[in-house]
Amino acid sequence: xxxxxxxxxxxxxxxxxxxxxxxxxxxxxxxxxxxxxxxxxxxxxxxxxxxxxxxxxxxxxxxxxxxxxxxxxxxxxxxxxxxxxxxxxxxxxxxxxxxxxxxxxx
Length: 106
Description:
The protein is an all-alpha fold. The chain has one domain (5-105). The chain has three helices and no strands. It has helices at residues 8-41, 54-83, 86-102. The protein is elongated, with a radius of gyration of 18 Å.
């Protein structure tokens, strides 16, 4: 059996990215419920996919852009860890996750 303990730093980066992605998904739900409540208070029927509310569109884009960048990020992270340096891959990975965390603030 191969010893993979040296890959733990990259596993943590992967886990952190997935947690961030699901946090962005929860944000979409939070914003959707808020917009739906506002629509109901105004007596307007809420249609999730026809609304032009900028808060909901922004929440969607944040989550979907994170999803769109997930495959290249994770593939390159793991290729660097396996074929290059685990320490460099984890440093660059944490840097990317940190910057991705700031993404919603624009």
